[in-house]
Amino acid sequence: MSAMSDSTPTVGELNEAGSISRAPHDNHRNPLPIQNYLVSKRNLEAYRQQISQAVAQVQAAIATKNQPFTGVLPHELACLFQPVNLDQPLSSMDAVLAELTSVYLNDAVYFDQPHYVAHLNCPVVIPAVVAELILSSINSSVDTWDQSAGATLIEQSLLDWMVQQIGLGPQADGIFTSGGTQSNLMALLLARDSLCERLWGHSVKHQGLPAEYARFRIFTSAASHFSVQKSAAILGLGYNAVVPVEVDPYFRMDQQALSNALTSCRDAGNIPLAVVATAGTTDYGSIDPLPVIADLCQQQQVWLHVDAAYGCGLLVSPRHRHWLKGIEQADSVTVDYHKSFFQPVSCGAFFAKQKQHLKTVTYHADYLNPLSQQQEGTPNLVDKSLQTTRRFDALKLWMSLRSIGPEKIGEGFDRVLHLARQTHMLLLSEADLRPLHRPQLSTLVFRFQPAEVSDQDLIDDINVAIRKALARSGEAMIAATKVAGRQYLKFTLLNPATTIQDVQQVVKAIKQHGTALLNTRLNPAKKESAA
């Protein structure tokens, strides 16, 4: 499909005949001073008008989309950027929005479309989008009280509420983050510094890494998120400090394998730093056996971090909250509201069972958050954050909870879990599709595998080609992964509005593309004669 075949009418683009015309690149030198563009009392009418124009543009874009993608390739879209001169502004907001439609909205990937079943991207709830407008317009930075006031208390209220949902206890606290990668980094940072203080009275914060740091080991499932390895590298421990633990047939961390790995670690003279359990692996949606892992970590005095970036929606699930039993015993927890709480990116949080561990990231700057303010009880959220300047992302969750409520959000997540089970049954009924596992959350890994074809290298190639063909057509977006060196396809279901009929259409398209590609590969002479 052409990159421009699904173009959207833009503000000011309709000519007198009612047809669509392209906005010219009317670059000019803007004579107005910067004061005329500030969100301020003097410019409120311009603020209202331009917001209204932008909303109309987004409305038009969403209204005309019937599939998640146009299929544009990188080099095709890049051509549209060649005439753009960032040194010269356009003449009006109409012109800016027309250009934006051309270079972005026309070919954006739309996660609200029911045939988008690729990655952990969710459609977003309207109150959260309203919050985005408000927080961007006011532009609070929630690092210190004197920059945020009520925003500080809104974020802290949400943190306190989530501590209760997780069950971490009265000494727990947290902070909003950019997402799971930052939260997992914080977890291992706190685990490292806590261990050094406990074993040797050594402050990494003041003295740097101890001589023993090369012996630190982090244990996590072989199916866990790559941010564990990334964090180990950032913290100076290296990828080799991460020990992948075998998984069971359901792709959960094998508890006996973990116990053996911890014993082997100590026998080799190394030091267990942390265990990272996953509540919702990216590929399989599997939840590690949290109660057993928690008991093992307590027995061996090893920091337990639970990465619930994906599975955190279970915390408000009316039906499946018990799947997270054991998370309350964790020393730290990651949640991503921009996954299973249907929030816009970015909106994540990190929690520590003992709030004093958050002091690891505290630094008192006289110009910003002097020690005297802490002693006076001034709540400066920067005292527990890796970031200094930080967006008021908590407002999105606040407005969602205050207008929709946690139960409805949880019901939305339950809907996608039910859809995943329906989809699994559908895949089992298809002769040419082989699901690899029964889903626990809402991801399914499967393979196009006709029974009559034994060449697995060929089937690998066909599975890769199926995904590319779907993306090029734009009719559906699916994901892919490798298992034991073989190519698989993957559904990630996070849209409560998607139905099993929608999934059936995607499955039909997969089979059609797969069959056509396979016939072409098996009968090249037939293809040449047809040409």
The SSE order reads HHHEHHHEHHEHEHEHEEHEHHHEEHEEHH
Q: Widest sheet: strand order?
A: 2-8-7-6-5-3-4
What proportion strand?
Answer: 5-15%
Rg from C-alpha positions? 26 Å
Question: Segments where pLDDT lies below 50 for 5+ residues?
Answer: 1-25
Number of DSSP helical runs: 18
Oligomer kind:
single chain
Query: What structural category arises from helix and sheet content?
Result: alpha/beta
Instruction: Give the helix proportion (percent range).
Output: 40-55%
- Counted beta strands: 12
Give the overall form: globular
Mean pLDDT score, rounded? 93
> For the terminal residues, how far apart are their CA atoms?
21 Å
